[in-house]
Every structure is written in C-alpha cells, then in structure tokens.
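Lab notebook, design round three. We kept the backbone fixed and only want residue identities now. Task for the bench partner: fill in a sequence for the structure below.
Input structure tokens:
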C-alpha cells in the first residue's frame, strides 16, 4: 500500500512507451512536476520498467510506469524491449511518446498496433514542440498514426496540462466490473468478517483484502463485525438478527463453516476478489482439475506479491499439504511471485493463483486469460481450499449462476 493509502492494485496504471531518447522520462517529470525519472541524453537510460505510485490530477491515485525504449538493440536490448511490451498487460491507459524531430517511426507504429490490439486507450504525445518551432518545422506527424495526437514541450510545459486532461478522459470511472461485496449487501445488514491474525501481515495491520472488504462494507452502510475464528460462535449468538453474510480468510474455511449455521451465507475474501478483479467462472471451472491430477504432475502456485516466507506459509507449505492430502498424489510444486508469471504454462497441469490483491484488474485477467488460452486450468487459493475442505458449493451459493458450473 502506498503512503497515500490507496493500494497499488486499485490505482489507474499508466504506461509511458516510446523509443530511446524520445523523452518518456521527461514527459513523466513534466506531468508530475517532479524529477521522478532520470533524464539523460544517453540512449537506454531506463533499462527496466520503473513504477511510481502517486497522485496525478485530475485522475487521482495512479501508478506511472516508465519503460525501456522499444528500439533498444542487441541481445540485452531485446530483453528490455520484451519487458516494455509485457507492461502492456497491466496498464489501464498509455502515453506513446514520439520524438517530434524523428517522426513516427516503425517502432512507434509497432507499439501503436499493439496498443490497438490489446484495446488499451492511449494518447500520442509528440515531444520537443519548442524545438520544432525554433527550427520552423511543420507540426505534423508522418506517417499519420491512428490515435489522437498532441504536441507537447517538456521544456516549456506547453500542452502538458492538456495531456493530463486527455488521459483522464480515457480512463473509465470504475475500472472493475464488479465491486467486492457492495451488491451483495444492503444498508444496516450485519456482516461478519472472520480475520485470523496473519503472520505475513505487517505488525499492527490487517492484510489488504480484509482492509478493502471492510472499507466497502462500511461504505455500503452495513454493520460490520470483525472477529477471529475462535470468537465467531459468540458473535453469532450476540447478534439479534442473523448476518447477511459471513466472510472468512480461506485458511479458516473449515473451522468457520462448522460454526456458521447452514442458512447463513458463507464465502471467503479470496472468492470475492476472484469476482472483483479476475474471472470467477474461469477459476471455478479450473478447480475441477484437482480431480484429474496424477503422480508426477506439476502445479504452479503463483502469488502477485512478494513477502518474507515464514513457517506455516500458506502458499509454500499449507496449500501443497492440503492438495497432496486431497488428491493422494505425488505432485511437483513450482512457485512464482510478484511480477514473475511464465509466458509458457504448458509444463503445468494446473495453476493456482493468490487472490491478486496487489495486482490490478487488467493484469489479473491477463494471467487468467493466458492459462485459458493455453488450455491450462487455473483457480485460486480460496476456491482450492474450499474444495479440499468440502465446502466449495456452500461458498458459491451467493453466486447461483456460477454455482451451476459445478454441476
């Protein structure tokens, strides 16, 4: 989470693309009014994508991503170009920076084609407007691109405000198709959030999915009660009216299910996030792959964040143990974390992803789509844990159409 309090996964992600020395870093600095990116006449100063979370008016909380030049050369340069293209999988909007003195080159055209292919809204910022005027050059970009073009000067600041306004107009007000739980509850409903104190969470804080779910419940006007698993029974007895919904951390699914009467809807944070920023239907279909795993099969366990592994870690210890016990098979587990996600998923018979709270919706859906396109079943922690504990159907009852996929 950033210093301003908005999680990175909920910020608008804006990628800045272009050739080396087109002025990408200068555009970022001009847009933000800060020296966030190193500016140098030496080509290839930016060698890796660099992310910066900040407030950018009139958009609000954003993540700006400065990328290596798409015209980099050599073996190492090709890897840098590949990383720039990979950033497309996580951005909600883009600025294609073009060197006004060089014109619209084949590399620029290739990037614009990729933006159109991936349906990423973008604006083309033609840099060095002041130099073009000084040299008496025509303010025309040839060959003509298909996107909207704006001539800017990072030196004088001309049209930088207009660039930010155009970016703001490109981004939809609500990036996520579904809320976390706002459409499942009504004002004054009782909602119980069962939140074990996670050892992986920073001291004194709840983990991010719990924070975000609680915030949305409060915004919906619900009466929220936050308890640990051992306090749930007492909380249920205390309430005059049954809760509209009980939401639990996946690790406590079995315990919470035993304590919660069958007539009270029960689900997990992980399942809510599967709908909020993923593809609930695809992840539900993927969980059935557990039944088909065989000895020697490989399972990829992928997390969207990086954290210090501790004894009893869910991804590296608990989840593999539960799956082995459920399938009674000798399986091979492979782990990735953070921005690492294999392009080639063919070595794996199943992918199990975390809830993706640190990823934005576009990147989470990209990962799910990668698996679906390659015919590799993908599910997430919450659904797999619900399945191995025998309560998946119950945890999906709040989504009747999705529940039908288990038939």
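Proposed sequence:
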């Amino acid at each position: 989470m950033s210093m301003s309090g908005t999680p990175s996964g909920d910020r608008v992600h804006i990628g800045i693309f272009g050739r080396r020395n087109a002025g990408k870093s200068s555009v970022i600095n001009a847009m933000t009014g800060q020296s966030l990116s190193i500016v140098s006449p030496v080509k290839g100063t930016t060698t890796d994508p660099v992310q910066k979370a900040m407030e950018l008016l009139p958009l609000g909380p954003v993540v700006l991503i400065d990328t290596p030049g798409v015209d980099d050369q050599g073996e190492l340069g090709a890897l840098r170009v590949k990383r720039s293209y990979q950033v497309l999988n996580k951005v909600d909007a883009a600025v294609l920076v073009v060197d006004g003195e060089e014109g619209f080159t084949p590399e620029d055209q290739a990037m614009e084609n990729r933006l159109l292919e991936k349906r990423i809204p973008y604006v083309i910022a033609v840099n060095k407007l002041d130099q073009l005027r000084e040299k008496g050059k025509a303010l025309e970009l040839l060959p003509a691109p298909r996107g909207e073009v704006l001539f800017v000067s990072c030196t004088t600041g001309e049209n930088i405000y207009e660039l930010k306004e155009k970016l703001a107009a490109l981004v939809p007000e609500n990036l996520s198709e579904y809320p976390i739980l706002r459409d499942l509850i009504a004002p004054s409903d009782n909602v119980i959030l069962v939140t074990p104190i996670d050892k992986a969470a920073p001291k004194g804080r709840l983990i991010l999915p719990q924070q975000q779910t609680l915030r949305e419940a409060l915004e919906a006007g619900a009466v929220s009660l936050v308890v640990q698993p051992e306090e749930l029974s007492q909380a249920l007895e205390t309430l005059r009216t049954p809760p509209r919904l009980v939401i639990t951390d996946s690790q406590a699914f079995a315990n919470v299910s035993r304590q919660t009467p069958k007539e009270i809807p029960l689900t997990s944070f992980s399942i809510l996030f599967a709908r909020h920023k993923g593809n609930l239907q695809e992840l539900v279909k993927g969980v059935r792959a557990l039944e088909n795993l065989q000895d020697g099969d490989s399972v990829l366990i992928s997390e969207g964040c990086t954290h210090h592994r501790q004894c009893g870690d869910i991804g590296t210890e608990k989840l593999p143990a539960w799956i082995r016990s459920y399938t009674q098979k000798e399986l091979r587990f492979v782990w990735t974390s953070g921005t690492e996600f294999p392009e080639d998923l063919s070595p794996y018979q199943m992918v199990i992803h975390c809830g993706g709270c640190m990823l934005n919706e576009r990147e989470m859906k990209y990962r799910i789509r990668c698996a679906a396109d390659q015919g590799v079943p993908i599910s997430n922690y919450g659904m797999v844990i619900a399945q191995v504990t025998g309560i998946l159907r119950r945890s999906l009852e709040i989504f009747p159409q999705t529940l039908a996929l288990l038939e």
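Keep this in mind before ordering anything: The chain has a mean pLDDT of 88.
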